[in-house]
Amino acid sequence: VSRPGIDPGQDARLPRCGQRDPWPALRAHLARSRHGAGDRRLRNGARRQFRRRRAAGRRHGRPWPGGMSQIDTLPPLCDVIRTHDLQARKSLGQNFLLDLNLTLRIARTAGDLTQATVLEVGPGPGGLTRALLVAGARRVVAVEKDTRCLPALEEIAAHYPGRLEIRNADALTLRLSEIADGGPLKIVANLPYNVGTQLLLGWVAQESWPPAWQSLTLMFQKEVAERIVATPGSKAYGRLGVLAGWRCHATIAFDVGPKAFTPPPKVTSAVVHLTPRATPLPCDLKALERVTAAAF
Asked: What global pTM score does this model have?
């Protein structure tokens, strides 16, 4: 009669079977009680690791699967891109931002939007657009040059009736007076990399001051962002720092890692928040532009 116990030939078979620890096999009836505490430690360790990685992603602006929950009932951005076949085009400087919690953080950086008209340049599939509307923007004007993105934006407009206005136009030719409707005007955008600096200079180096806009909350490559907020004597100080610092208070709100975008750029990005100075030092704008162009 066979009885439970140690198989006399088991030790000899261990090397051939690849088993390194004989205890689970020799004492199978104790396996659960022996390893239960270890399993609990592994589970608790995994939870701690999850929380640490999620917190690190939030601090550094990186997407984290557990933090990509929907902010409204519209389809996820990846589905929108697939449905409308929206492949980002390098010629248009496009890098789509997919993490909706991250776009909501950008929208909140712009402050109270409930009484404001928000100008968004280059909305693409509408991730930031949706965040601005969820954040309570009274009116959003989305200026998009790429006609492929218009159907996706129209779906958002239908979901938020009366609050989203879509314009198929080039932002470089846009006049802010055509956007403002008497209330506060805020510009919030993940700017196309190839025209971002040009747009900023157009908004900061305009003849009339104070400007029509109340604040700028803009995404740039981190290197450009550092030049915008640079102070005299710093390594990054140059033409952008002179013009922006003369007329605005500028700060970097937070960084955004490459993996937050599709396709991922080769550099880190940063969100810059600018507010106009009420009374900048008296200076001739054209003379200052000539000096900075020659000096830097």
From this structure: 0.76
Cα angle 209, 214, 215 (rounded to 5 degrees) comes to 110
Q: What is the dihedral of CA 130, 265, 274, 173, to 10 degrees?
A: -80
- Which stretches of the chain are assigned E, i.e. beta strand? 96-97, 117-121, 139-143, 164-167, 185-190, 215-221, 248-256, 261-262, 269-276
Alpha carbons 137 and 125: distance in angstroms, whole number: 18
The span from the CA of 95 to the CA of 191, in Å, is: 9
**pLDDT tens, residue by residue, 47-95:** 665 566 555 544 444 444 434 457 999 999 999 999 999 988 888 778 8
For residue 2 the two structure tokens come to 């066979």
Q: H helices of 3-126, where?
A: 10-17, 23-26, 31-60, 77-83, 100-109
Measuring CA to CA, which residue among 105, 289, 67 is closest to residue 188?
Answer: 105
Give residue for tokens 């196309």.
192
The span from the CA of 156 to the CA of 163, in Å, is 10
Q: Which residue has the higher pLDDT, 113 or 283?
A: 113
Q: How many other CB atoms are found less than 10 A from the CB of residue 158?
A: 10
DSSP per-residue letters across 1-13: ---SS--TTHHHH
Q: Which residues pair with 275 in a beta bridge?
A: 249
- The distance of Cα 150 from the centroid of its chain, to the nearest Å, equals 21
In three-state secondary structure terms, 68 is coil
Q: How many residues does the chain have?
A: 296
Least confident stretch, 45-54, 99-108, 126-135: 45-54
Residue 106 contacts residue 217 (beta carbons within 8 Å): yes
Question: Cα–Cα distances in Å, from 258 out to 86, 217, 221, 262, 270?
Answer: 19, 19, 10, 8, 10
DSSP 3-state of 239? helix
